[in-house]
């Protein structure tokens, strides 16, 4: 069945991409947006504070202030969609054997192994559930069949979510990294909001609050790069929005009007870093210097080929290991792979293999970087 739907997926992907990207790309022909903005913020001494600058906007749109960035152009996108050969999906049997989906044992989490343990569950793609310091946090929640404005076209799942929103334990906070459809899913946001209401806090990038409140979310905390907010007045857990090299778009005319980034969740016992979706940039060393070390990081390892198109916006597994080292993570979970057909050209089982290989080459200990099955839980005990 999977093989049979492959051609349809490619057509859907091409149509969906063009539908979304064409008008927006015509709008951003501004050369300021086509090139990297030179890092004025880097001048004036290499102290941590000199780097921890708020986001930058040009002509009403946020920009990436690093020389490692180039915006995805229209020509490149057309070449990517129409000329790059996409690998065919393996058979359903092979996918099921190599990417099993297991029901998460939330009972085990609710019993709470010990107050100092950090527990994590990979729900799929960039959706990760983390329990630490008395809070349950969800990252970029998506449970829908497609990551698209509509459910009849656009990138489709080849692995189902391991649980429904109804089956989740009580969620205290959600962090959103950016507005692309595979990270900000309207149906999932609405369902989470219906279930948890104002007891759920949404930590979101600058420019997204009005969208969140329009869909009914009550407790929305909108943040700029390096801004810090406690979970609540009594809480000892702090949320910090930190940079990432990426971009935002949901409609023809909203390119980069909302900020993108990564999240640090800093408790008195555990520290968690969520990279969101990102190309490699120097911000990660600064994040490590200012907020590291982390007990756990979740870093993207998929959707990285072809490099000529993907490199500015998506790290490859080798760079994911670099980020693991930059932010000073004790353990890193590889995310953003093995769930949706995102139209990238690497074979679907390749990301974890390259991730492990590159960690070994870098001399990391076995298990320091890892992947989980969909729905699998990992407990990280304090030393
Ligand atoms: Zn993504």
Can you characterise this structure?
This protein is an alpha/beta fold and 383 residues long. The protein has a single domain, classed as Ribonuclease Z/Hydroxyacylglutathione hydrolase-like (Metallo-beta-lactamase, Chain A, 4-Layer Sandwich), CATH 3.60.15.10. 27% of the residues lie in helices and 19% in strands. The protein is built from twelve helices and 16 strands. The protein has helices at 6-27, 31-34, 48-51, 74-82, 92-98, 106-111, 186-196, 209-214, 283-291, 307-310, 317-326, 350-361, and strands spanning 56-58, 61-63, 118-124, 127-132, 135-139, 173-175, 201-205, 219-223, 228-230, 238-242, 262-266, 271-274, 294-300, 329-335, 369-370, 377-380. Strand 1 and strand 2 form a beta hairpin. It starts with 5 loop residues before the first helix and ends with a strand. Residues 1-45 have low confidence and may be disordered. The chain binds zinc ion (ZN). Zinc ion is lined by residues 180, 182-183, 277, 336.
Number of structural units classed as domains: 1
Shape: globular
List segments where confidence is low: pLDDT < 50 over at least 5 consecutive residues. Answer: 1-45
Bound molecules: zinc ion
Could you please say which CATH topology applies here?
Answer: Metallo-beta-lactamase, Chain A
* Biggest pleated sheet: 7 strands, mixed
- Give the C-level CATH assignment: Alpha Beta
How many helices? The count is 12
Strand portion: 15-25%
User: For this structure, what is the CATH homologous superfamily?
Assistant: Ribonuclease Z/Hydroxyacylglutathione hydrolase-like
Q: What separation lies between the terminal Cα atoms?
A: 47 Å
Oligomer: single chain
Strand order of the largest sheet: 8-7-6-5-4-3-16
In N-to-C order, the SSE pattern is HHHEEHHHEEEEHEHEEEEEHEHHEHEE
CATH architecture: 4-Layer Sandwich
The chain-level mean pLDDT equals 88
User: Which class best fits the helix and strand makeup?
Assistant: alpha/beta
């Amino acid at each position: 069945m999977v093989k049979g739907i492959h051609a349809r997926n490619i057509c859907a992907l091409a149509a969906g991409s063009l539908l979304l990207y064409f008008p927006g790309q015509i709008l951003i022909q501004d050369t300021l947006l086509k090139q990297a903005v030179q890092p004025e913020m880097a001048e004036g001494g290499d102290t941590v504070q000199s780097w921890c600058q708020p986001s930058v906007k040009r002509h009403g749109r946020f920009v990436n202030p690093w020389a490692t960035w180039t915006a995805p152009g229209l020509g490149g996108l057309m070449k990517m969609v129409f000329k790059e050969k996409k690998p065919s999906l393996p058979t359903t049997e092979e996918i099921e054997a190599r990417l099993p989906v297991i029901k998460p044992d939330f009972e085990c989490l609710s019993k709470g192994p010990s107050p100092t343990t950090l527990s994590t569950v990979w729900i799929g793609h960039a959706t990760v559930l983390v329990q630490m310091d008395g809070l349950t946090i969800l990252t970029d929640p998506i449970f829908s069949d497609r990551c698209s404005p509509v459910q009849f076209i656009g990138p489709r799942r080849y692995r189902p979510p391991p649980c429904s929103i109804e089956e989740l334990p009580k969620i205290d906070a959600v962090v959103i990294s950016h507005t692309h459809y595979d990270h900000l899913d309207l149906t999932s946001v609405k369902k989470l909001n219906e279930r948890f209401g104002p007891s759920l806090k949404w930590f979101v990038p600058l420019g997204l609050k009005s969208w969140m409140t329009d869909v009914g979310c009550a407790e929305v905390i909108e943040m700029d790069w390096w801004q810090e907010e406690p979970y609540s007045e009594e809480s000892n857990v702090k949320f910090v929005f930190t940079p990432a090299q990426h971009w935002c778009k949901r409609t023809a005319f909203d390119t980069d009007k909302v900020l993108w980034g990564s999240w640090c969740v800093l408790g008195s016992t555990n520290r968690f870093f969520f990279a969101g979706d990102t190309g490699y940039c120097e911000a990660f060393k600064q994040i490590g210097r200012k907020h590291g070390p982390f007990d756990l990081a979740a870093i993207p390892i998929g959707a990285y080929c072809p490099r000529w198109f993907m490199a500015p916006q998506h790290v490859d597994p080798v760079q994911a290991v670099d980020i693991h080292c930059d932010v000073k993570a004790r353990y890193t979970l590889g995310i953003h792979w093995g769930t949706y057909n995102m139209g990238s050209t690497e074979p679907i089982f390749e990301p974890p293999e390259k991730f492990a290989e590159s960690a070994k080459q870098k001399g990391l200990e076995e298990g320091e970087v890892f992947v989980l099955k969909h729905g699998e839980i990992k407990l990280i005990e304090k030393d």
